[in-house]
Amino acid sequence: MYQYDLVVIGSGPAGRRAAIQAAKLEKRVLVVEQGRRVGGVSVHTGTIPSKTLRETALNLTGWRERGFYGRAYRVKQEISAEDLRRRLLITLDHEVEVLEHQFARNRVQQMRGRAQFVDPHTLEIAKSDGEMLRVTTASVLLAVGTRPYRPPHIPFDDEAVLDSDELLEIKRVPRSLIVVGAGVIGIEYATIFSALDTQVTVVEPRETMLDFIDKEIVEDFTYQLRDRNMKLIFGQTVESVEREPNGGKCRVTLKSGRSLQAEMVLFAAGRVGATDTLNLAAAGLEADNRGRLKVDPETFQTSVPHIYAAGDVVGFPSLASTSMEQGRIAARHAVGVPASEPPQYFPYGIYAVPEISTCGLSEEEVLQRGIPYETGIAHFRETSRGHIMGLDTGMLKMIFSLKTRRLLGVHIVGEGATELVHIGQAVLNLKGTVEYFVENTFNYPTLAEAYKIAGLDAWNRMGEGPKEAPVATAQPTDTGNTVSPQDMPLKPKKKAAS
Ligand SMILES: Cc1cc2nc3c(=O)[nH]c(=O)nc-3n(C[C@H](O)[C@H](O)[C@H](O)COP(=O)(O)OP(=O)(O)OC[C@H]3O[C@@H](n4cnc5c(N)ncnc54)[C@H](O)[C@@H]3O)c2cc1C
Ligand SMILES: NC(=O)c1ccc[n+]([C@@H]2O[C@H](COP(=O)([O-])OP(=O)(O)OC[C@H]3O[C@@H](n4cnc5c(N)ncnc54)[C@H](O)[C@@H]3O)[C@@H](O)[C@H]2O)c1
């Protein structure tokens, strides 16, 4: 008889949701967390701190009011690192308190320490006070997440050359910042610091950024960043990073020979799975070269059936939102209770300044699948709410199938995008058509009215009934067939466990 039904390693979104789900099913659950407090990367160094920093920066700078009062408008003239940290600490305390309470209410047992496998059903836990403990369990969920990728040639110094965890501890707001890597983390922080009037330069080895987002949205976003003097350098690789002696400036030399200078460097070139200390071999498991684990995308089982993995450690999409859902499904499966499949489309929110949010297929994906389509676009400045808020930017784009008239994708850049997207997400997953937007009444004045405007924009070109569709050039799919709109695969290819 094992001591536990499920031992969860890691208390981030995947671990937390899994543990509570199993406890609700009256199973004996233990959560092992090596950090001082529960919550994982999401609460302590990732989602919540970065979004709190964003909110504080926008509030203290008066960013949202600048449409009315001009670019020089400020709520607080001198914004210090301490101003930014104060709100962060309060938010984190609340998050941890809520989580601790959830664990207690649901009788989830907790242990502070680092877990590793002794054999496939036994874990050894090195507690922070030096004590070693062994526990046995019927199933294990690895929800260990990731940590920043730190290559040896980058001279991280905890002060001026930083990864995204260390950025939260800065003592001063830099006047200039070089961000290496235009992934989601790099772009979110780059634009937040730009809103704080830091001169920001982004260096990205690829020719483009955020390739999974609809191109038209990324173009609008890029235009906005350049318009406020952010420097975006694509297609260039960093050769070296150095710092002048005695706390001087940082110099970033690119392979092209170009040299950049700034007070701080943020290195944000991806993350690696935190699997190296788990002694995976003792459980018969192996991680890939980025520390990630392969799982069955339906059940989240690893190659050892009673050991599950969920969250960032299994790779794409690496979101707090999807990690929670993966943890819940894994826990149900682990304790023998079936879980229904998640809906076909999940939203993606990038909390840059401005926000981007998207759900469903991009125009490039629709074209690639050979689906005849029409698009509808609305600019926030066309809405009365936009006028009231002083918005001169912001755009919502929807893509509809010409044959079925169903919504295929919604893509938004601008204020409130991460909230607004859920209207499109609901219509998409409930298989709604363009008529939903044309026939329904929206609150007025709201930014959500942009849905109506974009719906009408598409409808005006689509006409009343089904149409033959000349818009997209039908391309063979990767299966070699041409996709008919009726057969359109509503489920995006599962990338979660790749
Ligand atoms: C800067 C940043 C911003 C982000 N913003 C967003 C956002 O806006 N929206 C969004 O949806 N997602 C965002 N994410 C992603 C989100 O944070 C992750 O998807 C999420 O945290 C993953 O959850 P997880 O459960 O896999 O593990 P994590 O949150 O990574 O937690 C893993 C936990 O496991 C513990 N652990 C690891 N190994 C062991 C061990 N051997 N023994 C015991 N404990 C162990 C760690 O200490 C850690 O607490 C962001 C990430 C970053 C870095
Ligand atoms: N709002 C959100 O939902 C949110 C926010 C932040 C992070 N996240 C998640 O966290 C995960 C990690 O984000 P990330 O930004 O660290 O990784 P990423 O993989 O999204 O981006 C890394 C970027 O760095 C570039 N790069 C890779 N190697 C490089 C090198 N040697 N030098 C310079 N640039 C290099 C890549 O081309 C890429 O553009 C993402 O998958 C994302 O889903 C989500």
TrEMBL record:
Keyword terms, alphabetized: Cytoplasm, FAD, Flavoprotein, NAD, NADP, Oxidoreductase
Protein's cellular compartments: Cytoplasm
Q: Where is this region: Disordered?
A: 464-498
* Entry-linked Pfam families: Pyr_redox_2, Pyr_redox_dim
**Main location, first listed in the record:** cytoplasm
- Top enzyme category: oxidoreductase
Record's InterPro entries? Class-I_Pyr_Nuc-Dis_Oxidored, FAD/NAD-bd_sf, FAD/NAD-binding_dom, FAD/NAD-linked_Rdtase_dimer_sf, Pyr_nuc-diS_OxRdtase, Pyr_nucl-diS_OxRdtase_dimer
Tell me where in this chain the FAD/NAD(P)-binding domain is found.
Answer: 4-327
- Name one molecular function that GO assigns to this entry: NAD(P)+ transhydrogenase (Si-specific) activity
**Composition bias type Polar residues, residue spans:** 474-485
Please state every residue range assigned to the domain named Pyridine nucleotide-disulphide oxidoreductase dimerisation: 347-452
Q: What is its EC number?
A: 1.6.1.1
Q: Read off the PANTHER family from this record.
A: DISULFIDE OXIDOREDUCTASE, SOLUBLE PYRIDINE NUCLEOTIDE TRANSHYDROGENASE
* Homology family: Belongs to the class-I pyridine nucleotide-disulfide oxidoreductase family.
Q: What exactly does this protein do? A: Conversion of NADPH, generated by peripheral catabolic pathways, to NADH, which can enter the respiratory chain for energy generation.
Q: What is this protein called?
A: Soluble pyridine nucleotide transhydrogenase
**Origin organism of this chain?**
Rhizobium lemnae
Give the source lineage, highest ranks first. Bacteria, Pseudomonadati, Pseudomonadota, Alphaproteobacteria, Hyphomicrobiales
Q: Which gene encodes it?
A: sthA
